[in-house]
Amino acid sequence: MINPSFRKINLQAYKPGRSITKKNNKIIKLSANESALGISDKAKKVLKSFNSNISKYPDGKFKELINTISKKYNCDLNKVICGSGSDEIIQMLCQLFLNKGDEVIVPQYSFLMYRIYAKIVGAKVIYSKELNFKVSIKEIIKKVSKKTKIVFLANPNNPTGTYISKKELLDLRKKLRQNILLVVDDAYFEYMLNKDYKSGLDLFKNKNNVFILRTFSKIYGLAALRVGWGYGDKKIIKELYRIKPPFNVNKIAQICAKESLTDRKFLQKSVNHNIFWCKRIKKEFEKYNISTNDIGPNFFLLNFSKCKLSAEKVEKKLENYGIILREMKSYGIKNCLRLTIGSKKENIFLLNKMKSIFKHV
Ligand SMILES: Cc1ncc(COP(=O)(O)O)c(C=O)c1O
Question: Are 207 and 350 part of one and the same domain?
Answer without folding.
Answer: no
